[in-house]
Automatic annotation (TrEMBL):
SUPFAM superfamilies registered for this protein in UniProt: S-adenosyl-L-methionine-dependent methyltransferases
Methyltransferase domain location: 52-144
Annotated TM spans: none
InterPro entries attached to this UniProt entry: Methyltransf_25 (IPR041698), SAM-dependent_MTases_sf (IPR029063)
Species whose genome carries this gene: Streptomyces nitrosporeus
GO molecular function per UniProt: methyltransferase activity
DNA damage as UniProt keyword: no
Source superkingdom: Bacteria
Name the record gives this protein: Methyltransferase domain-containing protein
Length: 242
């Protein structure tokens, strides 16, 4: 199957936006895992005085997780899909949260600076993930924090087989019923075609980040979804996998 890219992928998300929240609700722990990852950013004092970018915010689930973890931060939430953003904007938000229609590939250093960037389920859906990582590093203040929450298989055949089973048994049937089979076939294959967790951690290092750490997600997604923490600017050049 040919994966969707750029404008074709954004249009597919536009079409799927009406049912996206209902389908993600079928995933046990989806919102809990996002909140746990947002807390792993470790923003001090509830984010008071800090600027945070939610890159690839979708319908706002990741934005809500950030707001819970850092209620005093100024959050900018960006996405390439106008349909997903419309769903996000329709929800209730404090004045410290704003949304912008921007593909990750179109960001430049001039859009910053930010103290932290949170990117959930984004990087496997961009055409040039390494280039986007370099842009994110340029957006961050020295020592700024990056957290990526992403479907990245461990490399184990067991976890790959589990992902196949979940997609065939749950994801594709649900996406087909919603009328968005093409998008959910893309999401299935995009995980298989993307970096494994160790390879993605090295990709982050290659983009100039330091202190890269790979953390697992609990439950059935262990070995399928990982959280990656990193810092921009000076710091110990080490990749740790607890």
């Amino acid at each position: 199957m040919t994966l969707l890219h750029d404008h074709d992928l954004a249009r597919a998300f536009d079409d799927a936006s009406r049912s996206y929240d209902r389908l993600t609700a079928l995933n046990p722990g989806y919102r809990t895992d996002l909140f746990r990852s947002a807390r792993r950013l470790g923003l001090p004092d509830g984010g008071r005085g800090l600027r945070v970018l939610d890159l690839g915010c979708g319908t706002g689930a990741s934005t809500r997780a950030l707001l819970r973890a850092a209620p005093y931060a100024r959050i900018t939430a960006a996405d390439a899909s106008a349909g997903m953003l419309a769903r996000a904007r329709a929800k209730r938000w404090p004045p410290t949260v704003r949304f912008t229609h921007r593909p990750a590939e179109d960001l430049t250093a001039a859009d910053g600076p930010y103290d932290a960037v949170f990117a959930a389920y984004l990087f496997r859906n961009v055409t040039r993930p390494g280039a986007v990582l370099e842009t994110v590093r340029a957006l961050l203040v020295p020592g700024g924090r990056l957290l990526v929450h992403e479907y990245t298989l461990s490399g184990s055949p067991l976890h790959r087989a589990l992902w196949h089973a979940v997609c065939r048994g749950v994801v594709l049937p649900a996406g087909t019923l919603a009328g968005d089979r093409g998008l959910y076939r893309h999401l299935w294959r995009s995980v298989l075609d993307f970096d494994t967790a160790p390879v993605f951690a090295e990709r982050i290092r290659g983009a100039g980040f330091r202190s890269v750490r790979t953390l697992p997600v609990a439950g059935w997604q262990t070995g399928i979804v990982h959280t990656f923490l990193a810092r921009s600017g000076p710091g110990p050049a080490a990749t740790e996998t607890p």
